[in-house]
Structure formats: C-alpha cells, structure tokens
AMP-dependent synthetase/ligase domain-containing protein (Streptomyces cheonanensis), 231 residues
Amino acid sequence: MVDQHGPADVLSHSQLLDQGERAAVALAKLGVRPGDQVAVLLPMSLESVVVTLACIRLEARRLTLPLGDHLGFIRHRLRTSGARVVITAGSCAVDGTVRDIKSGLDRALWACPEVHSVLVVQQVPRPVPWVPGRDVWWHEALAAGPVPGGPYAGAMSSSTDQPLDQSADRAQGRPQAGSAAPVPPAALIFDDPLDRRSADDSDQGWGERPAADGARGDLLRFLEEKPPHHL
C-alpha cells in the first residue's frame, strides 16, 4: 500500500496545455503510438481532461471505462481493445461514497496480461494497492517531461516552434520545421472576441474550416484558441 497526496483542483489554460504535453511525453515513453488505445478509468476531473489532450497529441484513442462494479465489462473491453496502458484513480468520491477504483481494476487485470503499465491518480488520500514494475504515480510520470528541445517540447504550449512529430509530418506530407513552409509559432491572445475579432478566429465553425492536417489539426486549433471559452 502506498499513500500519496491528492490531485490539483485548479489549472489555468496554459497550465492545462502544459500538463497535456507532459502527459503526451509520459504516454509516449510507455510505448503509446498513433492509433493505440489508452484505457481511462477516472471520474470527472482535470486529469481526465489532460488525458484527452495527450491522446490528441499522440493521435491515440481514448477508451473510457465505467466506474463502479463492472469488472467483467472492463476486462472484456481491455482484452478486445488491445490497450496496454491504463490510467486510473486510486480511490474517488462518487455521490458522497469513497470507492476503491484501483483495487477493482487490479482484479480485472488478472486476465489482461497485455496491460504493462498503469498510471495512478490519487483522488482521495488513502492507501492504494500497488504492483511494482507496472504501476506508476501520475504526478511522477508527468514530472519527467516535457524535455526542453525534445520532440514534444512546446507542442501544446503557447510557444510552438515545431510540429509534435516531424517524422509523422514527412509521412503525411505536412510542412516541417526548417522547410520552405515552416509551421508558424502560436501566440497567446487575450483580446475580447465580443469586442473585436481574435487573430485566430474566423467566420467558419470548427470542423468547417479547411485544414491540411485534417480533423486532428482542426481539433488542436479548437483547444488552443484564446480566450478558452469552450473550456
């Protein structure tokens, strides 16, 4: 059993993007690649949003698992999805009752040997069952990145200098940093869109504006538009 402090309850927009970048680095180090499934067993929380941002950056697929007594279903979803990484809460409060989420997940994982890593977010400060070599604290995994100048550095922050993965850009024909059509740096814009148009706004709705990098790039622009009224 291991004790650990609780999660953060307030993040600014820039902090949220930074956490998403750090989570993308952590998942990439665990072997998550584009198209992979990342299983998520979390209550509604900031960490759940961060996981979604990380999956977008990696072009991975988020597989949301239900809270509660659904061990058979969780085991089935993990085995059929091929997910190798699970992100879960140690314990969490649901309708005023504290539930031991991690202990239930451990029982489901007995029949899922393909799962090699479990990232644990401590929602409630109480002991958590632990499997050495497989389980990793969420806050420790995020503390390791991003690495300045690394392949994910600045990819979700307000000072983007290069694409998230230049090899993927080459494969899909997108402009690369240093090429004839470099990716322009992003910038934080705090003007009031009700007063005048924001520099990163347009008359087209999200999903309607043309994007050379497809729906993923369109979704990233949605997340990074300022002010973040949608968040």
